[in-house]
Amino acid sequence: MEPRFDLMANELGSKIGKRFFNVGLAIQQSSLPRDLQELVMLRASQINGCGWCVDIHTKEAAAAGETPVRLNLVAAWRESSVFTEAERAALALAEEGTRLADACEGVSDQTWAQVRRHYDDDQTAALVYLVAVINAANRLGVITRRQGGSYEPGMFAGN
What we know:
Blueprint: H1 11-28, H2 34-48, H3 51-63, H4 68-73, H5 85-98, H6 109-118, H7 121-143
Helix pairs in contact: 1-7, 2-3, 2-5, 2-7, 5-6, 5-7
Protein name: Carboxymuconolactone decarboxylase family protein
Pfam families: CMD
InterPro entries: AhpD-like, AhpD_core, CMD-like
């Protein structure tokens, strides 16, 4: 499977991409823990089948000190004992916010209550935007067939 299109090699694609990156940067600089951000982005990327994003967020999480056991269990977080209640709330929001078309109620009241129990207003705002942004990034990667495997941790740190 060959990539279809390099958005960043296109003038308009690059212009939009830089603005998109800045939204991600604002989320990254929020008080929402960075390791949690990587787990949430990894889970959404797994659901959406974005190899590029799975590659990025697995490697960034590992580089930040996330353990192999936890990384390997993200896809089965409900059936594992290695995630905190707060992390479980964020992962549930990531799943429900990613699978909107699969769920008649979207994000459940139970999940929302758990998120609000564990995260303050700024962290909740960052988490909601994070789920939306990673889903958009996943779609960009899947539509253009951006392949995983070549990402190096910190590759975009200077952008």
